[in-house]
Design goal:
Rossmann fold, two-stranded parallel ribbon, Epimerase_deHydtase, aldehyde dehydrogenase (NAD+) activity
C-alpha cells in the first residue's frame, strides 16, 4: 500500500478573492507554496486562471448563495475584490467574512483614499480616517467589517492601503491622447503610486510577515504631484503633455470622479512596510519603471 502523500495536496490552501491583474501577478509568487484557488465571477476566465497555476472557482460576491461551497475552504486568503459600486457599505466584504474559517490569515488590499484630503502632508498608518466620498467610505466599512471578523474569529488580518496602481498596461495613455486637462502647478495635489508587481509581492509577504491587525501603506518612494506624473508618462511615450487648468476651470472639464481624485493631496510614508515586511521594492520610483518601459 502506498502511504505517500501527494505534495500537491499537502500544501496549504490559499484563496484569492478578486483575481484580476494584481491577482494574476500574485500567482507565480505563491503557487509553489500553496494550493491556490482563484475566485472569479466570469466563467470565461477559468482557462486563464488555470493556465496561471490556480484552481478557478466561479462564484459571485454579489450573490451570497454562490459562495456557500467556499465556506472554510482555505486558511489563507488574499482579498483583492473592490466593493460594489454604490452605497456607503461594502456588502461584498460582508459576504466574504461569511466564508472565512476561524483563525484564517487574511490580507485585504484597501485604498489610501480612506484618509481623504491631507493637504499634502506626509502621513503614516496612525492617521485618522476621513473619507470624503462614498467610494472611500465603502473601503473604511470593509476594513471595519474585517477587523470585527478577526476579533470574533481569532483571525490574523493585515490591511494594505494602496494608492494608484500602475503598470505598463495601467497608464493614463488614453487620457493623455484625449488631452484631458490636469491641474495647474499652483493647484496641483500630491499623489502616490505602487507598481502592480510590487503590490503583488507585498501581499505575498504580508501573508507570513504582517503583524496581526496591522495596517501597511503599500506605496513606493515617489514624491510627485499628479500633473508631474502625467507629464512623466507623456514624456516617456512621446505624447503631448496634458494642458493645465486652474481648479475653478477644471470643474467644468472633467468628470466628478476624476475631480474627486484631484481634490485630495497626501504623501504616504512607507517605513512600516519596509521595516516589518522586509520588502525591497523592484520599482521604488515611478521614473525607474517608466524608463524600463521605454527600453522594451
Amino acid at each position: 500500500m502506498n502511504n505517500k502523500i501527494n505534495p500537491r495536496f499537502a500544501r496549504p490552501r490559499l484563496l484569492i478573492i478578486g483575481c484580476g491583474d494584481v491577482g494574476i501577478r500574485l500567482l507565480p509568487l505563491v503557487r509553489t507554496r500553496f494550493r491556490v484557488f482563484a475566485l472569479t465571477s466570469q466563467p470565461g476566465r477559468a482557462g486563464e486562471l488555470r493556465a496561471a497555476g490556480a484552481i478557478p472557482v466561479v462564484a459571485d460576491l454579489d450573490r451570497p448563495h454562490t459562495l456557500r461551497r467556499l465556506r472554510a475552504l482555505a486558511p489563507y486568503v488574499v482579498h483583492l475584490a473592490p466593493p460594489q459600486p454604490e452605497g456607503d457599505f461594502d456588502f461584498r466584504t460582508r459576504n466574504v467574512t461569511a466564508i472565512l474559517p476561524d483563525g484564517a490569515r487574511v490580507v485585504y488590499v484597501s485604498t489610501s483614499g480612506v484618509y481623504g484630503d491631507c493637504g499634502g502632508a506626509l502621513v503614516d498608518e496612525t492617521r485618522k480616517l476621513a473619507p470624503r466620498n462614498a467610494r472611500a467610505r465603502r473601503r473604511v466599512d470593509a476594513e471595519r467589517v474585517l477587523r470585527a471578523w478577526a476579533r470574533r474569529a481569532h483571525g490574523r488580518l493585515a490591511i494594505l492601503r494602496a494608492p494608484g496602481i500602475y503598470a505598463a498596461e495601467r497608464l493614463p495613455l488614453k487620457r493623455l491622447e484625449q488631452r484631458t486637462p490636469a491641474l495647474a502647478p499652483e493647484d496641483d495635489v500630491y499623489t502616490n503610486h505602487i507598481h502592480a508587481d510590487d503590490l503583488a509581492h507585498i501581499a505575498a509577504l504580508a501573508l507570513f510577515r504582517a503583524l496581526p491587525g496591522r495596517v501597511y501603506h503599500a506605496s513606493d518612494d515617489t514624491r510627485m504631484k499628479m500633473g508631474e506624473y502625467f507629464d512623466a508618462v507623456a514624456d516617456a511615450f512621446g505624447l503631448p503633455r496634458a494642458p493645465r487648468l486652474a481648479r475653478e476651470q477644471l470643474v467644468a472639464e472633467v468628470s466628478p470622479m476624476l475631480l474627486s481624485f484631484m481634490s485630495e493631496s497626501r504623501q504616504l510614508a512607507n517605513a512600516r512596510m519596509k521595516r516589518e515586511l522586509g520588502i525591497r521594492l523592484r520599482w521604488g520610483r515611478v521614473e525607474q519603471a517608466l524608463a524600463a518601459m521605454q527600453m522594451k
